[in-house]
Amino acid sequence: MLDHYASLTNGDLVPIDVLDQAEYIRQVAFAQLDQGRRTQLGQYSTPLSTARLMASMFEFREPALRLLDPGAGSGVLTAAVIVEALARSIPPTSVEVVAYEVDQRLVRHLDATLQLCQWFCEQRGVSFEADIREEDFVSHALPIVAGDLFAPPLIPFTCSVLNPPYNKIGATSTIGKRLRRAGIEVTNSYAAFVALATAMLGPKGELVSITPRSFCNGPYFRAFRRLFLHKMRLRRIHVFDARDQVFRDDTVLQETVIVSAVRDQEHQSVCISSSTSADDDYETRRDVA
Hints:
Layout: H1 2-7, H2 18-31, H3 35-41, H4 48-55, E1 64-69, H5 76-87, E2 94-100, H6 104-123, E3 127-133, H7 137-146, E4 157-162, H8 174-181, H9 189-199, E5 201-212, H10 222-231, E6 233-240, E7 256-262, E8 270-275, E9 284-288
Parallel strand pairs: 1-2, 1-4, 2-3, 4-5, 6-8
Antiparallel strand pairs: 5-7, 6-7, 8-9
Helix pairs in contact: 2-5, 2-6, 4-5, 5-6, 7-9, 9-10
């Protein structure tokens, strides 16, 4: 699949900038998708500027990076995290990616992006392994997190990056009932993704997600907030002042928030930041208890 993209860039098989290539793949991939189908699946692709901002929020506490991307799309978020990790003063000794993508039309593009990531790691002497799982993350993760008898064992992740799908989960739906049996009370798929990704992190595991702001208050997400904050410590919350900028490629009006959290309970301050968009040079920050 990577050869296909190389042929579109004058036959250059060695990408000069991995993230520029990943962004190009994203644009090609999502331009080919039917808008009605995307709405049905709750798909909103992550622009490169947003992916870079999210990747910058990781601390990469473990020597080896084991990354979970539960709704990977074309893989731009994974690429941004890997590039960021390898740019740190102490890069990871190895990189392992588990990427879930239920939409078969995106899987070949995701594979191309992960090939770029592999090349990038190998050029820097870092071993790389990727596992693309063409299945629904919630349905696959639920039995693992619940410890079902025939479920595969949970191998904890050090990091998880998410731009999960946004659609409602009915209280009487099959998946809603399964989630409740596992102790996860949610009304939207994005909260289910975050809850399950949190449960799959190891001690001191890090999570960075971009989701609607709706979980932050009100009764519908109270149980989710309690579950999330019981396991995770908030490290940073980034709010966007404009609703039409984050997913402007999709012409979506959505109040979104990026949350950075870690699986420990050390008492530290939380950074509250805001900007008009991810590529806005002017950003406000303040630390709160």
